[in-house]
Amino acid sequence: MKCIAIRHLKFEDLGIFEETLVEHGIEIEYVEAGLQNLDSCNWDNTDLVVVLGGPIGVYEAADYPWLRQEIEIVRQRLRQDLPTLGICLGAQIMATALGAAVYPGRAKEIGWSALQLSPSGKNAGLQAMDKIDVLHWHGDTFDLPEGATLLASTELTPNQAFPYGRNALALQFHAEVHGARMELWLIGHTLELRTAGIGLAQLRQAGLRGAVIKAAAGQKMLHQWLMQTGLA
Q: Which domains does the chain possess?
């Protein structure tokens, strides 16, 4: 089996999810958005597509024209009910592909905190994340697409996760990030952190706190979803 992960920043990769995918015998290929021709990939015959995070907005396609390609690739996979996972920007691309609005949220949400799982979230796919602090790192949010079910929320961002069909999952939060391995995030996003007034020491310590438990929960969540899609 093969997974193609669309990456927008080198350090915003599959993180701990990579270990879980490899354990299930899934070969991983990264495609660098904006650098590689997305049309060269055989998307229909790819077992899993993961669209990763990034600091741009889906509404900035005039500046980043390749975003239109990404959105169309995701739209076609969703129409065919092919396994697709969207994380942060990837979740916003999924929402856009399904006709929902994506726009700046009330404020940036950056830091580690627990999700509020909906009844559906507790019963279908996100059980492992119950009462687990996850990394939030976004300024945009999305409306819940028509036909989608809300799985998780935070006070600042009501729409944090939704499934679509049997084989697609959108996650606004970053369950793929290991709290003890986020230093490149602190370096790469230093301007955003300084502008938002986020304390690096506090963010670093919050990541380290219970890092092993948080990572295990994220990997368990991915495993359960892979089981649901038939990829594990």
A: 2-229 (3.40.50.880)
